[in-house]
Specification:
The chain is 36% helix and 16% strand. By secondary structure, it is an alpha/beta fold. It has a single domain, classed as Aldolase class I (TIM Barrel), CATH 3.20.20.70. A 5-stranded parallel sheet has the order 5-4-3-10-9.
Length: 258
């Protein structure tokens, strides 16, 4: 089955995106990423080296792969900071596919500042970036980000790194109905069943970092996430049966012999 995820000018066979934070070392990051089958790894360029060739560089571990790097603006709290960061990153690496995130509450929730995110999105879109925008689970803001030029919206399932899973299932559906760009469920995924659930709701993809990186066995969890995303997508495309309040016999009673 051909089921390609299209984000702007880019196409992916895998609907799982992985992160690069919280791993013990770059080798484990690589091993888990390969096991996940993901074709995209997001990197906080303020925290993980992908630009300085004189220091250990994560990109060196992926040069023999087809995995694309997705720079993100983690740590930025204003539109201006994010815009400057991505301009410098593109100049240094040539990468124009980005994950835009501007954090409003750095102390507790790590919730996004959607006003600053929207402002940055408008500027970066005009400069030719392919933007995947991290946002809250609000369908109104998701639509505004699409109108501002976002090529994908990434609503949180729960606070970053919490592992709580999807806290508002209805809003994932509402966002999917509100926009025409891909919807990637981001933040809060804790285990494989959370990823499958997101895909069964109709999400176009899932991003998972902490659930993989901090699992007891990151490589095994990465493979579990790969299979969960595939299973959830197939279940969604197959079309689930309607929920009913009472039992329905598996075998028909019409024409029974005795």
């Amino acid at each position: 089955m051909s089921d390609i995820l299209k984000i702007g000018k880019y196409e992916f066979s895998s609907r799982l995106i992985v992160g690069s934070g919280k791993y013990p070392d770059f080798q484990t990051t690589r091993d888990a990423t390969i096991a996940s089958g993901s074709e995209m790894i997001t990197v906080a360029v303020r925290r993980v080296n992908i630009t300085n060739p004189d220091e250990e560089n994560l990109m060196d571990y992926f040069r023999d792969t087809d995995v694309k790097f997705l720079p993100n603006s983690a740590g930025c709290t204003t539109a201006k900071e994010a815009i400057t960061l991505f301009r410098l990153t593109r100049e240094a690496t040539g990468i124009d596919l980005i994950k835009l995130e501007v954090i409003g509450d750095t102390a507790k929730t790590l919730y996004p500042d959607v006003i600053e995110t929207l402002e940055a999105c408008e500027v970066l879109a005009k400069e030719g970036f392919t933007i995947m925008a991290y946002t809250n689970d609000d369908p109104i803001m998701a639509k505004r980000l699409e109108d501002a030029g976002a090529h994908a919206v990434m609503p949180l399932a729960a606070p970053i790194g919490s592992g709580l899973g999807i806290q508002n299932r209805f809003n994932v559906v509402f966002i999917k109905e509100a926009v025409s760009v891909p919807v990637i469920v981001d933040a809060g995924i804790g285990c494989a069943s959370d990823a499958a659930s997101a895909m069964e709701l109709g999400a176009d993809g899932v991003l998972s970092n902490t659930a993989i990186a901090q699992a007891e066995n990151p490589v095994l969890m990465a493979e579990a996430m790969k299979n969960a995303v595939k299973a959830g997508r197939m279940s969604y495309l197959a079309g689930r049966i309607p929920k009913r309040p009472f039992a329905t016999a598996s075998s028909p009673v019409d024409g029974m012999i005795f």
